[in-house]
Amino acid sequence: MSGDLSTTTVVENSIVYPYGTPEQYPLVEDSDLNELTNTAHYYMECSNAGLCDRSTGECACYNGFDGVACQRASCPGYPNVCSGLGVCKTKHQLALEDNGNQYLLWDNEATMGCVCDAGQTGPDCSLKLCKYGVDPLYLDDSAVAKYAVFDFATLTTDVTAKFTDGTPSEGLGKWSIRFYDNFDHEWITSPIVAGAPCDDVIAALESLPNSVIAPGYTSCIRTARANTSEVSWVGTDAAGTNLLLGNGSPLPYTIRYQMSIWQADLAAMGSYFISNYTGDLSPANVFTAESSYVSSNTSTEPAVPLSGFIYRIKFRNNPGALSEPKIDLALDGTSPTLWASKGNQLITKVWTDGQQGEDNDYFANHCDKVTFTIQYDGTSVYYLNGLTSTERSLLKTCLGDSNGNTADNVEVENWDYGNYQYPHFVKLVHSQSSYDDSTYYCALIFDNTLTLDNSGESGTFILLNPFTPPDGQDTDPYEIYTTQGVLGLTSDSSQIAVSFASKYFFTTNPLYDNSTTESYNGDISCYSKPTLSVVPNCLNKGDLFTFLSVSPNLGESYANDNPPHLNIYTTAALLSETSSYLARTVFHTSIKTNADLSLGTRILKSDLSSNWAVSLYNKAMTQQHPYRIYKFTPNAASTYNYVNQCSNRGICGTDTGLCNCFAGYTSDDCSVQSALAL
Known about the structure:
Blueprint: E1 28-29, E2 35-36, E3 50-53, E4 58-61, E5 65-66, E6 72-73, E7 86-90, H1 91-97, E8 112-116, E9 120-121, E10 127-128, E11 132-134, E12 149-156, E13 163-164, E14 174-180, E15 186-188, E16 192-193, H2 198-206, E17 218-228, E18 232-234, E19 252-254, H3 288-291, E20 306-315, E21 326-328, E22 339-340, E23 346-351, E24 360-361, E25 365-366, E26 373-376, E27 382-385, H4 389-399, E28 424-430, E29 439-447, E30 460-463, E31 478-482, E32 486-489, E33 495-497, E34 504-508, E35 544-548, E36 569-576, H5 583-586, E37 602-606, E38 628-633, E39 640-641, E40 643-645, E41 650-653, E42 658-661, E43 665-666, E44 672-673
Antiparallel strand pairs: 1-2, 3-4, 5-6, 7-8, 9-10, 11-40, 12-20, 12-23, 13-22, 14-15, 14-16, 14-21, 17-20, 18-19, 24-39, 25-31, 26-27, 27-30, 28-29, 28-31, 29-30, 32-38, 33-34, 34-37, 35-36, 35-38, 36-37, 41-42, 43-44
């Protein structure tokens, strides 16, 4: 276009030209409308991908290109676009559909891709997926497969727990569950009456077509409460007796007071918070209600009472990392079919409390010959008890390195203690596991200044989340599984705020304690190329994370501030949005008067909703501590993929979608080991 072909490389660090290019064309803008003087893409007749018919002025595109100006690639499978089994979309559209991500590079409208129908795969959607199952050899391990357990809440601020469908004379309102299978295909149950017993909910799920949820495997527990602002919800029956899980434990929902104070939606981001707070609902006050009294489990500050029903449903015949289900309230397609009574707020939420399904076991290293119980010192320390000297040494060896740097390891076991920046990440399993049990993620450090366990030796293994045995029996023995993966603090200067059962984590830096961090806005995404000293472990889309409040001082433990059960979240999107309020407006007591940092401009979206809620820390809040994002980087040496097509024990016939099982394995997903199949 310019007639100039440079002899030197003029475009560097380009995704399109990773090795650079000497082509030099002017007058092209980037997504921020900055003029680019060195670029390899400019307007050309027929986009340089076709020939112009001078008699008609129309382009005859080369094979593989489409559009009136040949300006885009042909859809995969052209002319049978996406094999008739998917929808062709631009790169920009594909990114938007993927949790609102933005793709604005030069080919955002030029490169095309297929969104395949459920059960189809491949670039042109021509390949079929096979049924997923649990590798039967994995079950030989003492750990049980981790099946998804989701909590479904239908709540209201009406103290009588009454729901309506807008016409009270016609009875209670209805809702349904939108369930997603391994192929991410969407299934919607028949209507469920508000407050229905568990049997009705299970029946609605099991009536889905194609045996999506096989009868006899799904379990449910319902919690019903009225007019409560208590810290924990424990399921009770009509007589007030505690409802118990299959292993005899009560059903706790340690929701804290944040359950009562979802705030008004943020103008730029949509309905991330549902307002039950009766005070100021302006955007500037989004977190003020939370910050006033969410700092400890023993807070006596008032909260808005809630009534309603929470169902805990375990999908025991649907293995793998399932997408989070949804509660559907528009059963006729448009109007809501479930309402709170006049003048009250309706709240529907779905979350998982440390019991997410998984395709990969990232903690596949069993620490043999080590068992212990879990004890609580009565204040804030949860620790491993009952370890002998030999078991302590074995456990140290199993834990090994926590930060990915073996140079700072100590003692003959070649391990490190772990600290607030790099705690050990482990999985706890009941020693007498049954089919209904599950495993629990925990963060752990070794405090060599404490002597709490009964070993008589100095140093104690401390849990950073207040995990207790689900059945309440602190004498139960547990085993531990470790990983060579690393759990690392993303940034010491970035805090999060998240409402309960929300997928949106607001990251910011509200403290401004010193000049070195004053200009840092709390962004922990790798896209912004943060300074390593400020953000040592940045996040990309697809990275795993959890969140914790951990003190740099090993002598302090904030376990009670953390969720008892940790979720491992997947980064679905890292968003940057405009905010209409400032951090200093909300937390003026801890912000310098000249601070001008917007709160809520950096947002981390996860695949699962949070099972905890936190507000930002400020210096006036003496009981709460900063919550921060911790990135989990798995290690292949301690990762086992145990949920896959054909259960890892067969080959998928991509033309038929049927499994060809290896000798000795049978069933439609090859999940059954049988000598008769030889």
